[in-house]
């Protein structure tokens, strides 16, 4: 696997999404990108994809602080969905609170915690990690 | 015969009596109406009996009217009275008659009972004298009756009454006494002696001395005072609780009550009567109560029916600010004259058996300050239903109330602190995402158009963005300093930790030519969060290096002393010093600098202070401009 098939960003900050798109393009991060503005939107759409048996993303970049369903609530719900495909989740947050970092690590699905701002370097590291896994 | 005796006994009256008597006797001889008057008015019956013909007897009319009969219908026969006299008494009469007829010196004088016509008994004192002929043979007999029924009735009544009182006294277990105050003569009953373990016989001869020698001298003194009040008619009765000395040497509590029943012409007491009641058990129980109340750790007092003190605790004196501790026997209202009327009303209600209380009463003191009282009035009972007085229990809960207020203030402060923390958290978090975006966008901009990196505005923009990010990082550090760090404290050897820090700073120390002395003894250990201690040491040492003076050989010395539960780490330098007069208040504030040093950022001391305080310590500072600064850092001491 040279390149990530589908990546997914769940974040309510349009500037962040704009920046992420730019960086992803720069380093050729993935073939296609899904963007959801909050946890609920993401959950509903992902559920729909699963039931329609369509292609799920390989990696999710999840923000914590969001309206409606925040990152934690999304995780709580998402782990309950039966899903054959292994999706790798990165938490991408401004929070440097050690409690948040510890909590993130308690989820099996979450492979790492990235502190914003995301730079080209940081995303490159993610990419190389993903390649190692696959 | 009686007249003869009187003559002898009263010779002075002899002259007078003689001529009048003679005159009276002469008159009676001449005028039989006078005799009639005498026999009717002076006596309750007269009889004259013919002993030669014993069935003949003359009885005067009064004889019969006394017994309820019509004299006109009664025969002058001896059988008439022999029918109505009490049979047993008749035998007695015959016996006396026989004795008197044989021996004239034996008096015919007896009390006999007759049956009145209406059926009741008439008591008659019957006296008589036999008249004899020249040979001494009895021929006539003259007799006189006196009706003593009234006296007999009173006597009987008195007998009954005294039996009644005796029964009453015996059944109440009272010792009784009668005392002639003038002569000291006393009469005790058996129980009086029994109370103190004796028989009356053992105490003989009794006098007032018997009481004096068997009573505790101190009590006797008090008793005499109360007695004098009674003698002066200030009190209607004498009443006192005294300790008497029992035969076995122990004390017996006796309730001594009495009253003067007769006074002499000058108004001095003569006879006094009274009783002794053994009240040992009651008194002991009361003494126990009294002791208990005196020792009670709260304000408590016991009053009698008249609101007079029976006992009061030490706390009572301090709550009411009473200086005179001799209050037993004094009225509550006399001790506290300014007491409010509503309390008096409550006392009266309580005396009627009601329990009254208030757990929180706000009282304004005379000086205007507020006092909080919790109080209870409770009646105490003598017998099952009789209230003997009240017990007042009162606590000054002002301190507790103040503590409660303090606690609620503390809760408010805690709540505000929590909200502040929450606020700081959100601010730092939200600011961070925005500054992150700035950084990211700038980064992307430069990636896309590398040539603009040299643009002055973009350069300044980048600096501003970096400063913002840094500020937010600091803010976050402060927010994250947890005040509840006890679980994370680790035992650290202070000298070793300093040694490691010195390795990090050695380069700049050499550059600035500052000597650093680690004078901390090797065995001193502190309780710290390792990262905090590292940060604290680094801050103080680098500060010392940064603000060293170029005018002299600079040094920073670290030493440690024990002070109670703390290790006091002193960081002493001979550098630029700080003008504490100007800067003390903001020394540990955020973004405060006191030197025109280009490296100064003013965040170090702020974070350091927070970290030290989070670990339960404190920082003190002494400084003199251009002489140097000493920081004293208090850290928790770990003994072993």
Automatic annotation (TrEMBL), chain A:
<dbReference type="InterPro" id="IPR052893">
    <property type="entry name" value="TCS_response_regulator"/>
</dbReference>
<dbReference type="Pfam" id="PF00072">
    <property type="entry name" value="Response_reg"/>
</dbReference>
<protein>
    <submittedName>
        <fullName>Response regulator</fullName>
    </submittedName>
</protein>
<feature type="modified residue" description="4-aspartylphosphate">
    <location>
        <position position="63"/>
    </location>
</feature>
<dbReference type="GO" id="GO:0000160">
    <property type="term" value="P:phosphorelay signal transduction system"/>
</dbReference>
<dbReference type="InterPro" id="IPR011006">
    <property type="entry name" value="CheY-like_superfamily"/>
</dbReference>
<dbReference type="InterPro" id="IPR001789">
    <property type="entry name" value="Sig_transdc_resp-reg_receiver"/>
</dbReference>
<feature type="domain" description="Response regulatory">
    <location>
        <begin position="6"/>
        <end position="131"/>
    </location>
</feature>
<keyword id="KW-0597">Phosphoprotein</keyword>
Automatic annotation (TrEMBL), chain B:
<dbReference type="InterPro" id="IPR001610">
    <property type="entry name" value="PAC"/>
</dbReference>
<dbReference type="InterPro" id="IPR036890">
    <property type="entry name" value="HATPase_C_sf"/>
</dbReference>
<dbReference type="Pfam" id="PF08448">
    <property type="entry name" value="PAS_4"/>
</dbReference>
<dbReference type="Pfam" id="PF02518">
    <property type="entry name" value="HATPase_c"/>
</dbReference>
<dbReference type="InterPro" id="IPR004358">
    <property type="entry name" value="Sig_transdc_His_kin-like_C"/>
</dbReference>
<dbReference type="InterPro" id="IPR013656">
    <property type="entry name" value="PAS_4"/>
</dbReference>
<keyword id="KW-0597">Phosphoprotein</keyword>
<feature type="domain" description="PAC">
    <location>
        <begin position="357"/>
        <end position="409"/>
    </location>
</feature>
<dbReference type="InterPro" id="IPR003594">
    <property type="entry name" value="HATPase_dom"/>
</dbReference>
<protein>
    <recommendedName>
        <fullName>histidine kinase</fullName>
        <ecNumber>2.7.13.3</ecNumber>
    </recommendedName>
</protein>
<dbReference type="GO" id="GO:0004673">
    <property type="term" value="F:protein histidine kinase activity"/>
</dbReference>
<dbReference type="InterPro" id="IPR000700">
    <property type="entry name" value="PAS-assoc_C"/>
</dbReference>
<dbReference type="InterPro" id="IPR005467">
    <property type="entry name" value="His_kinase_dom"/>
</dbReference>
<feature type="domain" description="Histidine kinase">
    <location>
        <begin position="426"/>
        <end position="639"/>
    </location>
</feature>
<dbReference type="InterPro" id="IPR052162">
    <property type="entry name" value="Sensor_kinase/Photoreceptor"/>
</dbReference>
<keyword id="KW-0808">Transferase</keyword>
<dbReference type="InterPro" id="IPR035965">
    <property type="entry name" value="PAS-like_dom_sf"/>
</dbReference>
<keyword id="KW-0418">Kinase</keyword>
<dbReference type="InterPro" id="IPR000014">
    <property type="entry name" value="PAS"/>
</dbReference>
<feature type="domain" description="PAC">
    <location>
        <begin position="238"/>
        <end position="291"/>
    </location>
</feature>
<dbReference type="Pfam" id="PF08447">
    <property type="entry name" value="PAS_3"/>
</dbReference>
<dbReference type="InterPro" id="IPR013655">
    <property type="entry name" value="PAS_fold_3"/>
</dbReference>
């Amino acid at each position: 696997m040279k390149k990530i098939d589908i990546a997914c960003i769940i974040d309510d900050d349009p500037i962040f999404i704009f920046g992420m798109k730019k960086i992803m393009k720069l380093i050729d991060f993935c073939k296609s990108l899904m963007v959801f503005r909050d946890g609920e939107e993401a959950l509903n759409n992902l559920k729909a994809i699963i039931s329609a048996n369509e292609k799920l993303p390989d990696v999710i970049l999840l923000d914590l602080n969001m309206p409606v369903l925040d990152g934690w609530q999304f995780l709580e719900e998402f782990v309950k969905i039966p899903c054959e495909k292994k999706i790798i989740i990165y938490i991408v947050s401004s929070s440097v609170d050690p409690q948040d970092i510890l909590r993130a690590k308690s989820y099996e699905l979450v492979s790492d915690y990235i502190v914003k701002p995301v730079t080209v370097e940081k995303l490159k590291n993610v990419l190389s990690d993903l390649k190692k896994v696959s | 015969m009686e007249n003869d005796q009187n003559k002898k006994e009263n010779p002075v009256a002899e002259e007078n009596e003689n001529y009048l008597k003679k005159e009276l006797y002469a008159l009676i001889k001449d005028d039989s109406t006078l005799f009639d008057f005498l026999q009717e008015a002076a006596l309750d019956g007269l009889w004259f009996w013919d002993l030669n013909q014993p069935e003949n007897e003359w009885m005067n009319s009064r004889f019969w009217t006394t017994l309820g009969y019509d004299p006109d219908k009664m025969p002058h026969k001896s059988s008439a009275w022999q029918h109505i006299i009490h049979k047993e008494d008749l035998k007695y009469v015959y016996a006396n008659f026989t004795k008197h007829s044989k021996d004239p010196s034996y008096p015919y004088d007896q009390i006999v009972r007759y049956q009145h016509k209406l059926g009741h008994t008439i008591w008659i004192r019957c006296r008589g004298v036999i008249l004899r002929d020249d040979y001494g043979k009895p021929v006539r007999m003259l007799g006189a009756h006196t009706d003593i029924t009234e006296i007999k009735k009173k006597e009987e009544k008195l007998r009954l009454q005294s039996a009644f009182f005796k029964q009453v006294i015996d059944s109440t277990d009272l010792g009784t006494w009668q005392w002639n105050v003038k002569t000291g003569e006393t009469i005790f009953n058996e129980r009086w002696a029994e109370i103190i373990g004796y028989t009356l016989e053992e105490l003989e001869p009794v006098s007032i001395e018997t009481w004096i020698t068997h009573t505790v001298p101190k009590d006797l003194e008090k008793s005499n005072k109360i007695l004098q009040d009674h003698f002066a008619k200030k009190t209607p009765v004498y009443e006192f609780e005294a300790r008497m000395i029992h035969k076995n040497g122990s004390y017996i509590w006796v309730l001594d009550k009495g009253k003067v029943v007769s006074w002499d012409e000058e108004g001095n007491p003569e006879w006094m009567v009274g009783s002794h009641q053994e009240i040992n058990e009651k008194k002991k129980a009361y003494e126990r109560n009294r002791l208990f109340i005196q020792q009670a750790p709260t304000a408590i007092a016991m009053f009698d029916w008249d609101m007079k003190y029976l006992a009061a605790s030490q706390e009572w004196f301090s709550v009411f600010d009473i200086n005179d501790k001799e209050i037993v026997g004094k009225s509550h209202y006399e001790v506290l004259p300014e007491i409010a009327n509503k309390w008096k009303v409550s006392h009266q209600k309580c005396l009627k058996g009601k329990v009254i209380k208030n757990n929180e009463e706000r009282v304004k003191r005379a000086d205007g300050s507020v006092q909080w009282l919790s109080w209870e009035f409770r009646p105490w009972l003598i017998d099952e239903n009789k209230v003997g007085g009240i017990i007042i229990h009162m606590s000054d809960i002002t301190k507790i109330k103040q503590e409660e207020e303090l606690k609620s203030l503390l809760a408010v402060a805690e709540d505000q602190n929590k909200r502040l923390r929450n606020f700081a958290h959100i601010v730092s978090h939200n600011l961070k995402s925005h500054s992150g975006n700035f950084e990211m966008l700038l980064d992307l901009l430069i990636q896309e158009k590398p040539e603009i990196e040299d643009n002055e505005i973009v350069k300044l923009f980048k600096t501003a963005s970096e400063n913002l990010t840094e500020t937010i990082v600091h803010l976050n550090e402060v927010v994250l300093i947890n005040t509840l760090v006890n679980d994370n404290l680790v035992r650290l050897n202070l000298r070793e930790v300093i040694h490691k820090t010195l390795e990090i700073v050695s380069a700049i120390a050499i550059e600035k030519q500052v000597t650093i002395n680690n004078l901390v003894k090797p065995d001193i250990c502190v309780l710290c969060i390792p990262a905090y201690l590292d940060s604290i040491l680094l801050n103080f040492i680098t500060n010392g290096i940064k603000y060293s003076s170029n005018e002299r050989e600079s040094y920073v010395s670290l030493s440690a002393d024990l002070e109670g539960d703390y290790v006091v780490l002193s960081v002493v330098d001979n550098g630029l010093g700080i003008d504490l007069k100007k800067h003390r208040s903001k020394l540990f504030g955020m973004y405060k600098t006191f030197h025109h040093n280009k490296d100064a950022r003013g965040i170090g001391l702020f974070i350091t202070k927070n970290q030290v305080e989070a670990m339960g310590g404190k920082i003190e500072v002494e400084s003199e401009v251009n002489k140097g600064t000493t920081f004293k850092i208090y850290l928790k001491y770990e003994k072993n």
